């Protein structure tokens, strides 16, 4: 399905689905049970989208019981493994999520993987409502030559590594074979990874960065970071606050070519329509004119490279690792259909030497068995959070199945964006509940938590309850205190599971 068809198509679908889906509910409404009746809800994924959904469900429906499952033994998803260690204020939201978990009508089951410990169909037979909130745990790729060379990592892998995610604790990026790193993309994740590479390690030492990452950054030889964007400064995907922060790093000189700051009428129009773009452009323009101090050998360099499209990853001389990027110069053209300015190659190429590349062009959600998936957009097709059976015009609503967060709308937005996203999905659930769609007296009785526990026991799956996480939390905080850090994260699977049992 073409992208441009999506909006009109979605509207057509809504018109088509409403009468079809709810014709059955007209009779069901008459038999709908009281809102005090139990409603068994399972949320898959304990990041912000999952916890906001649980919170809204608990507030919005008296008899609801919410179970949150997560494949990690630890809750909070991207707040724990995505938010940068030097952004502690963004992590405060976990206090709110912990209060949700403490609600007697809510339970957490960590170390439970949908797809291997239990299937989607088992889950749907067990719960009245299943809400998928498992986010985006993979990466977009370029599909250009050399992408599998050593020394090339996705930003997600690098972020998971410095944040102590147990799947990436062995990544060991080599930060000592080069003085130059290239970051591809200019969104906030790109700024995060560039900032971590450039920031003084004395400043990082008092954050919750993983200890092995701090050690590696202390011995890093990287002095220059190139942030490469295929479009111009007006189109940089970062936001002003994050840009201001990286431009203000101590001991870092910033380089921006004056020529790249020239604006076209279309750029001016974009800035007129967006305060963020205007602010980002102003900050970059100002940074370009600041006198750079060169008298200190300790100063690192941040280079903004605009209008360059990656075309090849080139090997180092001995072929053992990445040695340079081949970039094609670009121009911006109105693509006609969307009115967006897109980058088109000029046929002029150049090389940028480097010893490590971090690809920061977006996260990607993964499909699971039994779930429809829009491969092009990397989301589950849905109508206001109600999962659709396919992307086609004849799609039907999957009863009792909902989606929220990055899996619903794609990998964009800050933590708080998930609050509105969760509200929309929960509104859909509550609307369906009021229509009696979950209380068909002739339908099977869902067991909820009891059923989940039976399945986990049959499969010998050892889950981590919320108080198991609290034991991990206590240990991490105690270990951190010894080093003047908010916490020292436990980064290995077996140690996490051990810590969850102890105490
Ligand atoms: P993003 O904001 O979508 O940025 C992706 C970047 O990759 C853009 O510069 C984009 O350029 C570029 N890109 C995509 N495909 C490309 C290709 N084929 N070739 C070259 N460049 C390509 O994604 P993100 O940085 O991963 O961030 C995800 C979300 O998390 C964002 O909403 C972000 O604001 C949020 N976040 C927020 C914070 C914070 O608030 N502190 C921190 C981290 C993340 P084009 O624009 O040309 O497509």
TrEMBL record:
<comment type="similarity">
    <text>Belongs to the ferredoxin--NADP reductase type 1 family.</text>
</comment>
<dbReference type="GO" id="GO:0016491">
    <property type="term" value="F:oxidoreductase activity"/>
</dbReference>
<feature type="binding site">
    <location>
        <position position="49"/>
    </location>
    <ligand>
        <name>FAD</name>
    </ligand>
</feature>
<dbReference type="InterPro" id="IPR021163">
    <property type="entry name" value="Ferredox_Rdtase_adrenod"/>
</dbReference>
<keyword id="KW-0274">FAD</keyword>
<keyword id="KW-0249">Electron transport</keyword>
<keyword id="KW-0813">Transport</keyword>
<protein>
    <recommendedName>
        <fullName>NADPH:adrenodoxin oxidoreductase, mitochondrial</fullName>
        <ecNumber>1.18.1.6</ecNumber>
    </recommendedName>
</protein>
<feature type="binding site">
    <location>
        <position position="114"/>
    </location>
    <ligand>
        <name>FAD</name>
    </ligand>
</feature>
<keyword id="KW-0560">Oxidoreductase</keyword>
<dbReference type="InterPro" id="IPR023753">
    <property type="entry name" value="FAD/NAD-binding_dom"/>
</dbReference>
<feature type="binding site">
    <location>
        <begin position="230"/>
        <end position="231"/>
    </location>
    <ligand>
        <name>NADP(+)</name>
    </ligand>
</feature>
<keyword id="KW-0809">Transit peptide</keyword>
<keyword id="KW-0521">NADP</keyword>
<dbReference type="InterPro" id="IPR036188">
    <property type="entry name" value="FAD/NAD-bd_sf"/>
</dbReference>
<feature type="binding site">
    <location>
        <position position="413"/>
    </location>
    <ligand>
        <name>NADP(+)</name>
    </ligand>
</feature>
<feature type="binding site">
    <location>
        <begin position="186"/>
        <end position="189"/>
    </location>
    <ligand>
        <name>NADP(+)</name>
    </ligand>
</feature>
<dbReference type="Pfam" id="PF07992">
    <property type="entry name" value="Pyr_redox_2"/>
</dbReference>
<feature type="domain" description="FAD/NAD(P)-binding">
    <location>
        <begin position="40"/>
        <end position="230"/>
    </location>
</feature>
<dbReference type="InterPro" id="IPR055275">
    <property type="entry name" value="Ferredox_Rdtase"/>
</dbReference>
<keyword id="KW-0496">Mitochondrion</keyword>
<feature type="binding site">
    <location>
        <position position="406"/>
    </location>
    <ligand>
        <name>FAD</name>
    </ligand>
</feature>
<feature type="binding site">
    <location>
        <position position="78"/>
    </location>
    <ligand>
        <name>FAD</name>
    </ligand>
</feature>
<dbReference type="GO" id="GO:0005739">
    <property type="term" value="C:mitochondrion"/>
</dbReference>
<feature type="binding site">
    <location>
        <position position="242"/>
    </location>
    <ligand>
        <name>NADP(+)</name>
    </ligand>
</feature>
<keyword id="KW-0285">Flavoprotein</keyword>
